[in-house]
Amino acid sequence: MDILISGASVAGPALALMLTRYGFRVTIVERAPGPRDGGYAVDFRGRAHLRVLREMGVLAAIEREQTNMGAMWSVNESGKKLVKMPDDIFAGDVEILRGDLARILYEATRGESEYVFGDSIASLDEDAHGVAVTFERGPTRRFDLVVGADGLHSTVRRLAFGPEERYASYLGLYNAVFTTPNHLNLDHTGLSLNLPGGRMAATYSARGNREAKAVFWFGSEPLAYDRHDVGQQRRILADAFSDAGWIVPRLLADLREADDLYFDSISQIRLDRWSRGRVVLLGDAAWCASPLSGMGTGLAAVGAYVLAGELATAGFPEAFARYEQIMRPYVAGAQKSAEGVAGFMVPKTRLMTRLMNLSYRLLPYLPWKGAMARSIRKTAEAVSLPDYPAAPVPRRRPSDRAS
Ligand SMILES: Cc1cc2nc3c(=O)[nH]c(=O)nc-3n(C[C@H](O)[C@H](O)[C@H](O)COP(=O)(O)OP(=O)(O)OC[C@H]3O[C@@H](n4cnc5c(N)ncnc54)[C@H](O)[C@@H]3O)c2cc1C
């Protein structure tokens, strides 16, 4: 079977890794001109996530590049440390920068899968035997199946299921991340400042302290902007934090030069079904639980493992139904865990910020101190993974192609 995957971040390459092992031929189309760096750290936690990474053969590489972050601190506008954030709640078993993870998955798949960068699917025309796919740039091609692993704003979802507005619910926050120098010489740590109006600015050391990530969160009504216009996104972010003190003006000066800005709304995606005919959705395109769930990447990896395993064992079309049956309750748990986190994580008023800091300070002494961490772990482990057969790695090695 020839399978086309749209999106080369986490879900797409993770699926390609497993599909090619089972002997499927895979093409991945990615809108960006090459593998995308950028983003902050993503976490894997619990037995299911680790098992899937182990079976994909990437766990050791991920562990080698994990962030090894220590405690994070909440600070005031003078940079004075106020309280240590509870790391058993925020950190997973393995934490890695999203860009490093995407690179590891790309390197693990580029030999067996065909990558087409700088292009996007323009239309899907399905008949009884396959799908004719037209691209914005490359020639029309036919595939047996098409997978949308192209994220929150999925093009495949729009083409097969209809406009994003039907499926997206906005959780009231925007998030931005970009790379900066490690101005504060942070050593495997991060500092975050809560600001009135439901805003947070933070800086974390990254990549062995050689650089840092600037991370911003702010509450807002839904904003109308062009997702492909980085200049516009820079202006929105700079305006939202123009009155902030501490190190924020310096980070905003770096923003002008940053070439890896990630800027997006915090939203969830909900669809009644994830497949239609020969088209299926995976990862954020299907079920985005939002970064507030702390599970977006784990869900994408587990979903890729299940979808590939079901295609190899049950085959199309049964595989799609079985994939939903296994993943639906798991995804629902992660989506639920993200609801209500926004208000707590990015408090709107100074009083609420003080209450949040107080609760962090008291947490180690409270009888239910482990309960939150245990509940997050339980959500991450709430999936029964079938045992799919191990498959030989094929020898075909097509080269990369840019359209
Ligand atoms: C640059 C970047 C930075 C991120 N930073 C963070 C972060 O700091 N914290 C966090 O929790 N999550 C972050 N995320 C989201 C996180 O990667 C996902 O929530 C999770 O890993 C699930 O991944 P996914 O592969 O389903 O979707 P995504 O990671 O969103 O990947 C979707 C991919 O599809 C590509 N794409 C989009 N449209 C098209 C199209 N029309 N044709 C072809 N390709 C297309 C995108 O360029 C992207 O590579 C980031 C995502 C990206 C792309």
Automatic annotation (TrEMBL):
InterPro entries: FAD-bd, FAD/NAD-bd_sf, FAD_aromatic-hydroxylase. Keywords: Monooxygenase, Oxidoreductase. Residues 2-313 form the FAD-binding domain. It holds the Pfam family FAD_binding_3. One of its GO terms (molecular function) is monooxygenase activity. It comes from the Bacteria. PANTHER family: MONOOXYGENASE, OXIDOREDUCTASE-RELATED. This is FAD-dependent monooxygenase. The lineage of its organism: Bacteria, Bacillati, Actinomycetota, Actinomycetes, Streptosporangiales.
